[in-house]
Amino acid sequence: MLHGYGANEYDLIGMADALDSRFTVISARAPLSLGNGSYAWFPLAFTNEGIKVLDTKAAIQSRALILKFLDEVIAHYPINPKQIVLMGFSQGSSMAYSIALTEPHRLMGMVAMSGRLPDERLLKLAPAEHLKNFPIFVSHGLYDEILPIHNGRESEARLKELQVNVTYKEYPMAHQVTAESLSDISNWLTEQLNQS
């Protein structure tokens, strides 16, 4: 699990009880401290034109840290390395996308909650044949005031262009996870596990 901007590793872990008990749920803390227990994967600016990335180098460094973290998880926990799913919320979704779209062979699937695709100019996308049919679940709130709904819809459109196996759902919610969206995510994750 990869939390959003200004949160920490405890933000998403409460969802673990709603997921299939066969999963080992691990939540990572982003490296950039914002103070008072708040962390980020990379700095942002909140402007009238929307959210702007202030430091792409920090995003690239965080991506490398997540890959290292995945290696450490595989080394230290009794898990199947072919059954790893990255699950991100908001900024954490961008980080999860940055792994899934460049190194899909390392994952069984990915969940993006209330997020958006990272700038592809900073990514070296995996070959098309590696992305084809890669499973991604995207949830987004119709009333999201932080990352408005067009972010989710644009992500869905781009993922379809990349021919990933995208499941896209919109919910009557803001920038959040609701019981309904979490139930759909949980069911999707169980399906992926059963098919692996």
Number of H/I helices: 5
Sheet with the most strands? 4 strands, parallel
Helix content: 25-40%
- The count of DSSP E runs of length 2 or more, i.e. the number of strands, is 8
Percent strand equals: 15-25%
Succession of helices and strands: EEEEHEHEHEHEH
Envelope shape: globular
Low-confidence stretches: none
Structure description:
With 196 residues, this protein is α/β, with parallel strands linked by helices. The chain has a single domain (13-195), classed as Rossmann fold. The protein has five helices and eight strands, in the order ββββαβαβαβαβα. It has a four-stranded parallel sheet with strand order 5-6-7-8, with helices on both faces. The protein has a two-stranded antiparallel ribbon with strand order 1-2. α1 (56-76) packs across α2 (91-100). The radius of gyration is 15 Å and the shape is globular. The model has no long low-confidence stretch (mean pLDDT 94).
SSE map:
Elements: E1 32-35, E2 38-40, E3 44-47, E4 50-53, H1 56-76, E5 85-89, H2 91-100, E6 109-113, H3 128-131, E7 135-141, H4 149-161, E8 165-171, H5 179-195
Parallel strand pairs: 5-6, 6-7, 7-8
Antiparallel strand pairs: 1-2, 3-4
Helix pairs in contact: 1-2
Task: Summarize this structure briefly.
The protein is an alpha/beta fold and 196 residues long. It contains five helices and eight strands; from the N terminus they run E-E-E-E-H-E-H-E-H-E-H-E-H. Helices cover 33% and strands 20% of the residues.
